[in-house]
Amino acid sequence: MNDELLLVGARVIDPLNAFDGLRDIGIRDGVIVDPATLHAVERLNLKGKVVAPGFIDLHVHLRYPGQTHKEDIRSGTAAAAAGGFTTVLAMPNTVPAVDNPALLADVLRKAATEGAVHVLQAGALTVGRQGEEVTDIAGLKAAGAPVVTDDGSTPQQAAVMRQAMIAAAAAGIAVIDHCEDTNLARPGVMHDGAVARELGLPGQPRSAEEVIVARDIVLAAETGCRLHLQHLSSAGSVAMLRLAQQQGLPVTGEVCPHHLFLTDEACRTFGVNAKMAPPLREEADRQALIEGLRDGTLCAIASDHAPHSAEEKAAGWNKAPFGIVGLEAAVPLCLTELYHRGVLTLSQLIALFTVGPRKVLGLPIGSLALGATADVTILDPDAEHSISVESFASRSRNCPYEGWKCRGKVVGTLVGNTRFLSADYAD
Ligand code: DOR
Ligand code: ZN
After folding, report:
1. Under 8 Å between Cβ of 90 and 124
2. 253 — pLDDT class (breaks 50, 70, 90)
3. What is the pLDDT of residue 426?
4. Do residues 227 and 281 both lie within one domain?
5. Which ligand lies nearest to the CA atom of residue 324 in the structure?
6. How far apart are CA 137 and CA 98, in angstroms?
7. Are 109 and 142 within one domain?
8. How high does pLDDT run on average in the chain?
9. Could you give the number of structural domains in the chain?
């Protein structure tokens, strides 16, 4: 492939560098360079398109090792590239859990050869994610983990979490946290409200999330550990996070598209494709999450891409696993519901996929500065289309958005030297 490329005619939005305007972007050997230094140049005509730094998804389940019937590194990263993401953070709730430096290094080696996009791997907080014994957090960091989490759960004993935060703070690494008190959540399969009562399903109260949010903010304040709250779903959680930030505590938070665009009402329509952890809540929660994006309390949108097989999801409300696939729907949904509805500017939305995740990870990515790796996301902000679950590159189809009408699509991604352009891209 030609190792020089010029992106011409696009509106470039690079929130980290406060740039929004027409500009050409030069790329040589997978690195962003001054266009004036290019020679025999191949051009990509992007008139009418938006060029942004490659999007980063902080919450993805690639299912390797152990559950590759749901997804694997190839299929999951192909879904990421198609969905506009050039970097994903893989969760460690695999089988076995990624709870030791050797396994973490093995996953990263495999991802370097098989991954379509950059794969970061989070390390587990506790051995086997059992919530008892803290892992070798410094060793996990040395093996390449940018953060640690027991995602899928969190240590139920505050003393274990406290010890993990002390170790993470010493290692200079953030704890990212799936906030769920198991005793309060079980045996709930959806939000504990009027809809659950009507459907006759056991509910999970907001307190199942909120008591852990409160506990871990207190522990972060005491230990000085950087804490990132994953997939927040309740108004109370956003309020506590806002207060913590006002107090200057090192706490950040993310939200998923499904918590922004669906409520527990969706459980009536979409069945188990509306079953996820934490559960879809009520309209007031949804509004509070949107407000959290608007005022900057929440710094990232993450998909929580959680593939499961059709057979597993067919087990019914009480037995089916929690989660939906999200990598290929997240960006079109956010363009439609947040940008086109006037909730956020395009630059604010792009920052939630670039600047925010960069801050959480503490890595120098998500920028189009000269010298940066040429990770680029290309959008057509006005293209109208419908979500087609059948067309997903993901191995799984557990998704409630089939046929959703969207305005705004992903045209492609550039990952260093590799190009992923949608089939209908026409120069
Ligand atoms: O819905 C979810 N699915 N939430 C989680 O925390 C875990 C995830 C999974 O691994 O399937
Ligand atoms: Zn989770």
Report:
1. no
2. very high
3. 61
4. yes
5. 1
6. 12
7. yes
8. 97
9. 2
What's the rounded mean pLDDT across residues 397-422?
A: 97
pLDDT 10s digits, 307-353? 999 999 999 999 999 999 999 999 999 999 999 999 999 999 999 99
Best mutation site among 68, 151, 275 for ligand 1, i.e. most ligand atoms within 8 A of its Cβ? Answer: 151
Q: Is 233 in the pocket of ligand 1 (CB under 6 A)?
A: no
Give yes or no for a contact between 245 and 221, defined as CB atoms under 8 angstroms apart: no
Burial string for 145-180 (b: 16+ CB within 10 Å, else e) reads bbbbbbbbbbbeeeebbbbbbbbbbebebbbbbbbb
Distance CA 387, CA 396 (A): 15
Q: Which residue minimizes the CA distance to atom 2 of ligand 1?
A: 323
CA-wise closest residue to 77 among 66, 63, 67, 65: 63
User: Three-state SS for 322?
Assistant: coil
**Amino acid 427: pLDDT:** 61
Query: What does the pLDDT average to over 407-414?
Result: 98
Say if residue 219's pLDDT is above 90.
yes
Torsional class of 7: left (φ above 0), alpha (ψ -120 to 50), beta (otherwise): beta
Domain CATH for 302: 3.20.20.140
> Nearest residue CA, atom 3 of ligand 1?
323
3-class DSSP state for residue 411? strand
Among candidate residues 57, 15, 14, the one with its CA nearest the CA of residue 301: 57
Structure tokens at 318: 């009480």
pLDDT surpasses 60 at 137: yes
For residues 238 and 288, the answer to whether their CB atoms sit within 8 Å is yes
The CATH number of the domain holding residue 36 is 2.30.40.10
- Clarify whether residues 111 and 244 are in a common domain: yes
- Which entry of 57, 192, 304, 380 is annotated as an active-site residue? 304
Torsion of CA 263, 264, 269, 270, to 10 degrees: 90
Answer yes or no: do 29 and 88 share one domain. no
Q: What is the pLDDT of residues 356-366, one digit of tens each?
A: 999 999 999 99
- The range of the structural domain enclosing residue 350 comes to 54-361
- pLDDT tens by residue, 163-178: 999 999 999 999 999 9
61 lines ligand 1 (CB under 6 A): yes
